[in-house]
Every structure is written in C-alpha cells, then in structure tokens.
Amino acid sequence: MKRLLTVLCLLTLILVVASCAGFAEVDENQITEIPEEEIEPQSIEERKEVTISMVGDIIFYGSVESYMKKYGDHYLLESYGPLMKKSDIVLGNLETSISKRGVPVEDKQYTFRGKPEALKTLKNNNFTAVSIANNHVLDYGVEAFLDTLNYLEKYELLYAGGGRNKEEALKGILIEKNGIKVGFLAFTKVVPLVEWYAGKNKPGIIGAYMVHEKEFVKAIKDMKQNCDVLVVSVHWGKESSTVIREEEQYIGRRMIDAGADIIMGHHPHVVQGIEIYKGKPIFYSLGNFIFTKSRNDLNNKTIMANVTVDKEGNIIDINIIPGNIINGKPTPMEGAEKDSFIKHLNKMNVNYVVN
C-alpha cells in the first residue's frame, strides 16, 4: 500500500512540473498568425531575366515620311509597337541622319535624312537605344551627323557605334533592367568613305572590317567587364543576298569569343539565317524594318527577334516575329503566310530551328 501511494505521489509531481515547464494547454486566442505575404520563401531564389527585342534597318525618308504625314506619328509602329512595349529593352539600326541641315554626299546613290520629330515614334514605342554605325548616318555630312546625336539625346534615345570622337563612339552604353546590366556596342563593316571613321578629335563611326579586329575585340572585352549581358550590333553582309558569307561568320563568332552574348546583324535588306554559337545567337540579318517599298519582295520582309536572357548571359528563350513591310509600316504575319516564312527562315538557319 505504501509503495502504491509513493508511485501516485511521483506521478502527481511529474504532471505539476510538466505543466510549469510549458506543456499546459495553449489558449488559441494567444496565437499570432503571420500573413502569407510576409513569409519569404528561403529555398526558392527569384530568377532575374530580361527580354531584349531587336529589329533591323530604320529610315524616315521618302515614302516613309509621306505616310507619317498622311497617317500620323503613331502609324509606323501601330502593329509592332504593342509587342515592343512588352519587352524590357528594344534595339534597332537607325540608318539615317536626323537633321534639317546638311548637303547630300556626292556620288552616293542613296542618301537618307529624317526629321527630328520622327524619333518620337521610336521613343513612344519603347525603343531604348539604336545603332548609328552604318553607311547612311553621315549621308548629309558631319553637321547633320552631330544634329543626329543631339536629337537622339533630346528624345532620350541611347546610341552606340558613333560619337563626337572615337572614345565616345567606342565606349558603348549600359542599360540596367531587372537588376541586370546590359551592354550595347555597335560596329559597321560597310563604310563608304574613310572620312566617316571617328578620330581622336573627329566625329564619326566605328569599323568592323578585319583590319579592325583587335579594336573591336578589345572594346567587347572591356565592355563585358562592366555588364552581365552584352549585345553587339554589326552592319555587314551583301545587299539583297540571303547567303551568310564566311567573313561575317568569322567576325560574329570572334565577337562571341571575346564576350558578346547576342549578335544583331543588318544591312543586306533581307532576312538572313540564325546561328547558335557556343550557346549564343547570331542574327546575321534582321532585314529592313521601317523602310520604303522594294521591287524585290524579300526586301519587304522583316523579323523582330526577342531574346530572354538571365544575369549570367544564359539564353532562356528566343522568339521570332516575322512581318511584312507595307507602306513603310512593319506588320506581323499571321497564319499560313507566317508558317511559310518560318519554313523559309529555317532553311537559311545554320543550326537553329524556329518553331
């Protein structure tokens, strides 16, 4: 009997101690719930990425200017504009001087000049920057070229590939979106006159011929030290030809070896194929974009290349949007016409299939 009483006493003591130690029943009214939005998942790291849209040659001359006067500033990009506004960065090749001054270069078959107000069309449709390294930006002389730089700055459009001196023309630009630094450089392999090259105290553009290889490789390496992703624009290739020449292929690959993540090409006025080199895309020619009508139907075709890339320069996605240029206005293709053009593009591609 004494032994039983002793056991009962010990059990009672254990229950009392346990209650004091915190095993007592908890009052539900004392529980503080943490709102779900305040709970930060520790195991899932947010992926940072940007989508970059790239298009080819843009002019505001001749019939293009006439259509803008007739239909308004919004006309030219009323079809592609909504798509561009979904992207983080939009880039193109401004193949014209922007000025009301200057005299056309002598003995040049085509010379382009656009009114300053035309730049609003680009700015209002999410354009971030343009390449001015091409064979038309100095069509109306240095005076008009300097106006082009001033007007681009006025309308808050960044530019690369040209400048008031060589240092400015070579340095390129940096764009930061979604915590990712995107660099943009531009070069041209089509230069009508040696006087167009930028110098120490001379306005002009930057070349991409083989003789410039060391220069453009150094510029790319220097820029890549300051950015996460690097886009390089190159004006090159043979006009109206869909054939990718060996020299352009060598230069494009060399640029990627130096640190470029995306190569956007233009000048042939027709769309050329796409190559993936070491995981990086080379768009050999995006074709015309805002341009006058051509008798060659392929010159009236275009593509906008959308590339989504992460902070490490890995390509997440490539989306190609083909279009027709009708009355100066690029308009996305649909249905069977789109399917037919994609089939045509895939035949030209080096090692990439567009779905």
Layout of helices and strands:
Blueprint lengths: L1 H22 L25 E10 L4 H9 L9 H4 L4 E6 L2 E2 L14 E2 L4 H5 L5 E3 L9 H14 L3 E3 L1 E2 L2 H6 L1 E5 L2 E9 L15 E2 L7 H12 L4 E7 L10 H13 L3 E5 L7 E4 L2 E4 L4 E3 L10 E10 L4 E12 L2 E4 L2 H14 L7
Parallel strand pairs: 1-2, 1-15, 2-5, 3-4, 5-6, 9-11, 11-12, 12-14
Antiparallel strand pairs: 1-16, 7-10, 8-9, 13-14, 16-17, 17-18
Helix pairs in contact: 7-8
Summed over residues and divided by their number, the pLDDT gives a mean of 90
Helix content: 25-40%
The CATH architecture comes to 4-Layer Sandwich
β-strand percent reads: 25-35%
Number of distinct beta strands: 18
H and E order: HEHHEEEHEHEEHEEEHEHEEEEEEEH
- Uncertain segments of ≥5 residues (pLDDT<50)? 1-45
CATH first level: Alpha Beta
Instruction: Give me the CATH fold name.
Output: Purple Acid Phosphatase, chain A, domain 2
Basic shape: globular
Report, as a whole number of angstroms, the end-to-end distance. Answer: 89 Å
CATH superfamily: Metallo-dependent phosphatases
- Count of separate DSSP helical elements: 9
Rg from Cα? 29 Å
Q: In the residues, how many domains can be counted?
A: 1
Structural class comes to alpha/beta
